[in-house]
Amino acid sequence: MRQTLHIFGKDVRYLWREICLVLALDAMFAWIETHSPDPWWAEMLLTAAAGYLVARLIHAEAIPGASSGLRGHVAGRAYSEPSSSSFSCS
Description:
The chain has 5 helices and no strands. By secondary structure, it is mainly α.
């Protein structure tokens, strides 16, 4: 539970602007829903903002095991001599 709250807090600190935008659009949607006869555009705007927030949350997470040390090791590994010389002409 403690780790879950830590991850949630990290995400809220990182995405606070996007969260405020979605909350403001939600308040605007609630007001428009009660005062406008046809609020279809506000619903689409709120849906797009929520989708943007979810996409930012997904893309903000690091891929497990893709630390800079591991990536540097895999990308910086040289070919062995026998495999690189097998393409030479005889």
